[in-house]
Amino acid sequence: MILFFTAIIAFHQDVVDATISKSMYMNWGAHQSVISGDNLQLVLDQYSGSGAQSKRAFLFGSIEMLIKLVPGNSAGTVTAYYLSSTGSKHDEIDFEFLGNVSGQPFIIHTNIYTQGNGSREQQFYPWFDPTADFHNYTIHWNPTEVVWYIDSLPIRVFRNYENEGIAYPNKQGMRTYTSLWNADNWATRGGLVKIDWKSAPFIARLSKFRARACKWDGPVSASLCAAKTLTNWWTSPVYSRLSDAKMGQLKWVRDNHMIYDYCKDTKRFNGQLPPECFKQQF
Ligand SMILES: *[C@@H]1O[C@H](CO)[C@@H](O)[C@H](O)[C@H]1NC(C)=O
Ligand SMILES: *[C@@H]1O[C@H](CO)[C@@H](O)[C@H](O)[C@H]1NC(C)=O
Ligand SMILES: *[C@@H]1O[C@H](CO)[C@@H](O)[C@H](O)[C@H]1NC(C)=O
């Protein structure tokens, strides 16, 4: 096996450079999951889930992954794909996919942590069957906003209001992580629906991880990656705000497919919604 892969890498050095097997490694449950070429297969059974992470950390850019979620009865499973820095004041940008019983929709769960603070969940039902094919889950992240995309449709925006005292993720490099795990204490109907191990092993497939992003080389990167230069394409004014067309798509997704928004959950925050909820969000 090892010899075989080495030969491929040596032969296609330039192409392989960008593949998953070159840019990520398994950090959990490696015995049962597979990274090969541009594909990554995450497996969950009674004994273990599994996960992988990028070798590099990034600050700003476009982080793309094609994902085909666990088919059939996936209740109680969670597939996660996210960016995160480390430490107690960490930043994190999340896509999580909460499984469901056969034939019923997954929940696409998003969140963002800044300086260790999260609790900014927004959830959506997919408008497609996420288990039938690969779909493109992309995070665009630049000094002015973070945008979550599915198949190039923006579903969520988090804008930078740092000058108004709202922390923004722009000083810590983040690695990309993905994992498949047992979350049946909360994932499906608040934990009521447990994993049916008769359907195990559960398999999520990922492919074509691409980080068109600024490589994090320590604190100096905070200014280098934010500098308005041609190589830092994400700093171009085009990416500082969604176009009217993209704004229309965002509205369509939110009007028709959004099922939870923390900015509307006054009860949860005892009437004190987080400050960004009062800003122009898009
Ligand atoms: C984190 O959230 C708490 C509670 O909302 C708030 O008091 C605190 O100031 C926040 N910290 C930062 C760094 O934003
Ligand atoms: C995934 O979506 C992003 C954002 O729209 C796009 O830039 C990228 O080309 C897409 N990748 C693939 C493989 O379709
Ligand atoms: C599962 O499907 C049911 C029926 O559509 C829905 O009520 C529920 O919110 C779905 N998702 C989860 C994670 O339970």
Automatic annotation (TrEMBL):
Pfam family, one: Glyco_hydro_16
Free-text function comment from the UniProt entry: Catalyzes xyloglucan endohydrolysis (XEH) and/or endotransglycosylation (XET). Cleaves and religates xyloglucan polymers, an essential constituent of the primary cell wall, and thereby participates in cell wall construction of growing tissues.
Presence of keyword Phosphoprotein: no
The keyword Disulfide bond belongs to this UniProt entry's keyword annotation: yes
GO cellular component: apoplast
E.C. number(s) listed in UniProt: 2.4.1.207
Residues of this chain annotated as glycosylated in UniProt: 100
GH16 domain: residues covered: 18-206
Catalytic residues (positions): 92 (nucleophile), 96 (proton donor)
GO biological process terms, semicolon-separated: cell wall biogenesis; cell wall organization; xyloglucan metabolic process
Broad class of where this protein is predominantly found: secreted
Lineage: Eukaryota, Viridiplantae, Streptophyta, Embryophyta, Tracheophyta
Similarity annotation: Belongs to the glycosyl hydrolase 16 family.
GO molecular function: hydrolase activity, hydrolyzing O-glycosyl compounds; xyloglucan:xyloglucosyl transferase activity
Annotated PROSITE patterns: GH16_1, GH16_2
SUPFAM superfamilies xref list: Concanavalin A-like lectins/glucanases
UniProt PTM: Contains at least one intrachain disulfide bond essential for its enzymatic activity.
First and last residue of the signal peptide: 1-18
Subcellular locations according to the entry: Secreted, Cell wall; Secreted, Extracellular space, Apoplast
Keyword vocabulary terms for this entry: Apoplast, Cell wall, Cell wall biogenesis/degradation, Disulfide bond, Glycoprotein, Glycosidase, Hydrolase, Secreted, Signal, Transferase
Coiled coil (residue ranges): none
Protein name: Xyloglucan endotransglucosylase/hydrolase
